Amino acid sequence: MRYFLLIILFWVGNYGNSQTVLEWSDLSKGISWEQSSPEALFPGFQRATFSPKMKNLEGKQVIITGYLLVLDGKQSVYLLSKNPMASCFFCGNGGPETIVDLKFAEKPSFAMDELLSVKGTLHLNENNPNGCYYRIENADTLSFE
Fold this sequence. Notes:
Elements: H1 2-15, E1 20-21, H2 24-29, E2 31-35, E3 46-50, H3 52-57, E4 61-70, E5 78-81, E6 99-104, E7 115-124, E8 134-141
Parallel strand pairs: 1-4, 6-8
Antiparallel strand pairs: 2-3, 4-5, 4-7, 5-6, 7-8
């Protein structure tokens, strides 16, 4: 009986620390847009509305796999994309739900278009037209060793 209780306590303790593995389809199904009114602070900006599933993941640890995009010469702006740079959102393949803004704790040593898995804290952007709709903070890459 004692071992059974230890197993249950171990499982419950690890359950709270687990990450949710996201697929790109989760991101595309988890968002819809509303056109802002002409009187809005940012007219023409499409305000995001997130599904209950995505709202439940706000502030939680997630893992997602995609292609690393580096957007500036200083290598300080990183995105994870469903597609490599040649066919990413900016080139007309997919929508803004196919990219995730990455905020790394330490500068990564990966190259443009490298396929990698990233874990971190998911944040949703409903109102800021200067940011991606999805953002992962405290991002770190997973080792496949």
